[in-house]
Amino acid sequence: MKKLLVVVDMQNDFIDGALGTPEAVKILPAVCEKIRSFGGEIVFTKDTHSSIYLSTQEGRNLPVEHCIKGTAGWELNDEIKALSKDCRIIEKPTFGSVELANLVADGDYSAVELVGLCTDICVISNALLIKAYLPELPVSVDSACCAGVTSESHENALNAMKMCQITVK
To answer: pLDDT tens digits, residue range 59-96?
Structure first.
């Protein structure tokens, strides 16, 4: 059985761009080390929006253009990008990815670990989707390799995931 690491949305706009935070910048070295040392398969997700983002439901609720496909902000951070060669990248139009959950369901994995951005939006959404698809699969999140929109929302998301039987390291 194999393990899977899901690297969620380590894109320029979430690190030091339109929605970047000092906490996101701070976790970058830990995420890179996690990727380099992981003994299993790795998949990356990319939040992907179009130029009409602000007219979408998400755009009306979060009116900050970000991760517009083809822009520098949409790209993976350069350090992360260098580590993503030969790995699958899933473009997702919203917080959680059904494509990712299906990949995990079809992959015969013994465990899945998630890292990345943002703990309180995309990390929790994907962790819960995977857990809903595969309730017996061990799913974990490395809290040292995640950052939320705020420190408080990061902690709230970690606590919510714990309550849903997702292991928080």
So the answer is: 999 999 999 999 999 999 999 999 999 999 999 999 99
Question: In degrees rounded to 5, what are phi and psi of residue 110?
Answer: -90, -20
Contact in structure between 128 and 164 (CB atoms under 8 Å) = yes
**What b-and-e string marks burial along 93-119, b requiring 16 or more CB atoms within 10 Å of the CB?**
eebbbeebbebbeebebeebbbbbbbb
Q: What is the pLDDT of residues 12-34, one digit of tens each?
A: 999 999 999 999 999 999 999 99
**Share in percent of the chain as helix, strand, coil (round to 5):** 45, 25, 30
- Helix spans in 38-164 (H): 57-61, 78-83, 98-106, 124-133, 151-163
* Tokens standing for residue 77: 């951070």
